[in-house]
Design brief:
Elements: H1 38-48, H2 55-58
């Protein structure tokens, strides 16, 4: 689970797929299932808020899929 705060965040909603909290939906001893790679969120942050197009150098071998977390 990841929380993103700020004025340019598309807030008040869950971005990605919510895996649920039922016992059969949890991984291991009570952990949420991973549905979004953190590199997608941080890569979008680099692109949209920091205006840094060199994401491939920050996350080598990873192609960022923007999730619509940030405005503009």
């Amino acid at each position: 689970m990841m929380m993103v705060l700020g004025g340019n965040v598309q807030g008040r909603k869950v971005h990605g797929r919510w895996p649920g909290l039922a016992a059969e939906q949890l991984i291991g001893p009570g952990d949420l299932a991973v549905t979004t790679d953190y590199r997608d969120v941080l890569g979008e942050l680099c692109l949209r808020r920091l205006h840094n197009a060199h994401v491939a150098e920050i996350f080598p071998g990873w192609a960022v899929t923007e999730r619509g977390v940030f405005r503009g």
